[in-house]
């Protein structure tokens, strides 16, 4: 996506690459430059996630300023924490810990009602299946030697 000074954007190029290696990124940028002769006028590039992209773009577009997308940085941070909290919720053997992780997840998802609605309908509605605190006693039961 290319955006002009007043925020009007248009599609510029889509590249499917097998892994974001430096060589693959260079090939994608080279194809972009070949297909977009006006790319010499690029003043700024916003990189969404991969720090290796910055180096490639610095070489290919030395006059352009480079920035990391602030939106991506915060969402990556939140997604990582949400995944970690859900994992902790699924693995805990204590109901109070489960509730504590859930409370942290609720705090993290403030302002994202769709995420919490998804969590409620797909996780919390089947809480009996995901928590491990009751399964622990069941596992211990099966570890007992069979007498016969």
TrEMBL record:
Residues 1-65 form the ZSWIM1/3 RNaseH-like domain. InterPro entries: Zinc_finger_SWIM, ZSWIM1-3_RNaseH-like. Coiled coil: none annotated. It comes from the Eukaryota. This is ZSWIM1/3 RNaseH-like domain-containing protein.
């Amino acid at each position: 996506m290319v955006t002009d000074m007043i925020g009007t954007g248009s599609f510029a190029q889509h590249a499917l690459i097998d892994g974001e290696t430096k060589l693959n990124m260079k090939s994608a940028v080279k194809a972009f430059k070949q297909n977009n002769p006006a790319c010499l006028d690029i003043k700024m590039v916003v990189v969404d996630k991969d720090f290796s992209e910055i180096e490639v773009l610095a070489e290919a577009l030395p006059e352009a300023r480079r920035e990391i997308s602030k939106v991506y940085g915060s969402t990556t941070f939140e997604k990582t924490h949400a995944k970690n909290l859900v994992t902790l919720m699924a693995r805990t053997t204590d109901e109070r810990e489960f509730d504590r992780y859930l409370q942290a997840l609720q705090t993290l998802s403030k302002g994202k009602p769709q995420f919490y609605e998804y969590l409620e309908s797909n996780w919390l509605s089947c809480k009996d299946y995901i928590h491990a605190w009751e399964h622990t006693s069941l596992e211990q039961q099966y570890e007992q030697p069979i007498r016969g």
